[in-house]
Amino acid sequence: MSVAALLDGPGAEVLAAACAEFRPGSELRLVEQLRRRYDAALVTTAVTQAALRHRAVAKFGPDAGRMYFTPDGLEQATRTTVAAHRAERLATAMPGASLVDLGCGIGGDLITAARAGLQVTGVERDPETAATARANLSALRLPGDVLVGDAESTDLTPYDVVFADPARRADGRRVFDHNAYSPPWSFVTALLERTACVKVAPGIPHDAIPDGVEAEWISDAGEVKEAALWSGRLSTGVPRRATLLPGGATVTNAPEVDAGPVGQYIYEPDGAVVRAGLVTAVAGAVDGWLLDPRIAYVTAAKYVATPLASAYEVLEELPYKEKALRAWVRGQGIGTLEIKKRGVDLDPAQLRKKLAPKGSASATLIVTRIGRDAVAYSCRRVTTTLPVA
């Protein structure tokens, strides 16, 4: 049974009851209770929707309680904070522009774009998903339309800007190769010859990005979420950008920086900064240098708060040998051990198990490579609260 059955009448009534009484892990009991009052098929659809709304809060916040979802649509939808950043940038560059979203899914990006004042139209080939996107715009009282159709056959001439989020899954598995996207990469590059924004996986190779297109890597709360490719009137003329949400710190330039010995502090750049190839921007921000020219760790003599990286105070350099590290853990009474690594082949979870931390102290162990040698540092994570940009 489709989402349409829940929009009004008995369907809307049972959905309201399911959402009011839903508790994670008690779905079967809730289905049994509601089936005493409502049609069995309708109850199953409503309880499934209530469970999806519960999960959707992490991505959509309070809006989730009024929205409609499909399992795949929720899984693939952009987190609202990231979509809102993108929509704000679109609206700032082209206020009130008409936008077509090719492959709009359940409408997450349509919602933020409409709220930013853009005139939105979604195109979605799956009729059920298109109906869900249409229902979401209506539920949130936002203007816009959703058409059932194929991205590659859509007439783009009526629209000022094109947004696309190519499918990156095949047979239920995530696809990492941009050449396996759907629509194909050739279609994406053709879109980028006009004014467009295309959402791609953050692992997109730099050499796959067409000349003249700005690539923006975006993280949210320290987790890299996507890369957005901006072309035409939406590009700011820089080839690479890293943007860190929720604060909105952004960086576009990477100065030349030398490598040198470890200082009093080690800085771990945010993942978006690393993906964008802008690690040396961190060194510039903290008056530091690289530990190794091929490794994304910055070191400095002093602590400087920066939204671009996490900071660790270096307490001791340790031999990278299991016996020595186990003795360090035991001698320091370490029970909570955070292990960070770059440039070395190790599984932090397996190493932590071997070191058997047990005690009341906490510490961070940074394992990295300098030249050909693996090195380890006992560190203390520096916590600070930065003002929101």
Map the helices and strands.
Elements: H1 9-21, H2 27-34, H3 40-60, H4 71-76, H5 80-93, E1 98-102, H6 108-115, E2 119-124, H7 127-139, E3 145-148, E4 161-164, E5 169-170, E6 173-174, H8 185-191, E7 196-200, E8 214-220, E9 223-230, E10 240-245, E11 249-251, E12 265-269, H9 271-275, H10 280-286, E13 289-290, E14 298-300, E15 309-318, H11 322-332, E16 334-342, H12 348-355, E17 361-370, E18 373-382
Helix pairs in contact: 1-3, 2-3, 5-6
What does this structure look like?
The protein is built from 12 helices and 18 strands. The chain is α/β, with parallel strands linked by helices and 389 residues long. The strands form 3 sheets. The protein has a 9-stranded mixed beta sheet. The protein has a 7-stranded mixed beta sheet with strand order 13-14-12-15-18-17-16. A hairpin with a 2-residue loop joins strand 17 and strand 18 (373-382). Helix 1 (9-21) packs across helix 3, helix 2 (27-34) crosses helix 3 and helix 5 packs across helix 6 (108-115). It starts with 8 loop residues before the first helix and ends in a 7-residue tail after the last strand.
